[in-house]
Amino acid sequence: MNPFRANAVAETVSQHMKPPVDTKDKILDVAEEIFAEKGYSATSMRTITSRANVNLAAVNYHFGSKAQLYQAVFQRRVAPMNKQRIDMLETLEQKANGNPLALEDILRAFIEPALRASLNPNQGGTNFIRLLGRTHAEPGPEVHDFLPLLYEKVKDRYRSALALTLPELSQEELSWRVHFVIGTIAFTLAGTDALEMIESCRYCDPADIEGIIQRLLPFLQGGLSAPAALTKSTID
Q1: Which of 53, 129, 131, 236 lies at 20 to 30 Å from 190 by C-alpha?
Q2: pLDDT, tens digit, for every residue of 38-97?
Q3: What is a GO molecular function of this protein (predicted)?
């Protein structure tokens, strides 16, 4: 048989052997892409059903509403990401045997799973990371109560680790600094949309994940480990 024809036949057979994409996953993939492009408010169910080539009844059957679909998009991606964060932190804690962890190690364990996910289409790739950054930077009522619940366990575990590493910080001061850290990460996750607005970052490469991590870690470490701020409450 002609080798070119043989290759074509093999490719055709391979395509037919691929399992069909589940309707629910197809809706989630398309919704994730459109939410990342337009944001929650500007995305209509008609746009999602049209691009996914499904009817509205299918979306309602699997998710019930646009808000529930939006939450399902996050649940699918954030749950495994947070599991990886906790697994990495627990590995560090086991090696430390009860001693405080290095601040750099805590930060890397928290930020690396999200940044690495941007290179992995199976974890949402750039679509979900852009959506994640956008949502953290511009939270809407559709995630106001839902999103904190997704991060509750991770937040508590990392706060405890940071408190042990930075015992000189009060709970109030630590809470503010964690808030600033999350804000910095959210802006970083926003990717090219945010970078292109900053003239000084016209040479930044949002695809250079390791480079981003290496630049981000000392920046965050400096903020977290700086002397406590003098506030009205501390002066009084």
Answers
A1: 53
A2: 888 889 999 999 999 999 999 999 999 999 999 999 899 888 989 999 999 999 999 999
A3: DNA-binding transcription factor activity
Q: Which domains does the chain have, with CATH numbers?
A: 20-64 (1.10.10.60), 74-225 (1.10.357.10)
Q: Are 193 and 126 in contact (CB under 8 A)?
A: no
Q: How far apart are CA 86 and CA 206, in angstroms?
A: 25
Virtual torsion, Cα 154, 156, 159, 161, nearest 10 deg = -80
pTM: 0.76
Report whether 191 contacts 126 (CB < 8 A): yes
CA distances from 105 to 76, 78, 146, 157 (A): 26, 21, 28, 14
d(CA 28, CA 18): 19
What's the chain look like in SS3? CCHHHHHHHHHHHHHHHCCCCCHHHHHHHHHHHHHHHHCCCCCCHHHHHHHHCCCHHHHHHHCCCHHHHHHHHHHHHHHHHHHHHHHHHHHHHHHHCCCCCCHHHHHHHHHHHHHHHCCCHHHCHHHHHHHHHHHHHCCCHHHHCHHHHHHHHHHHHHHHHHHHHCCCCCHHHHHHHHHHHHHHHHHHHCCHHHHCCCHHHCCCCCCCHHHHHHHHHHHHHHHHHCCCCCCHHHHC
Q: Which residue in the block uniquely carries the two structure tokens 């003098």?
A: 230
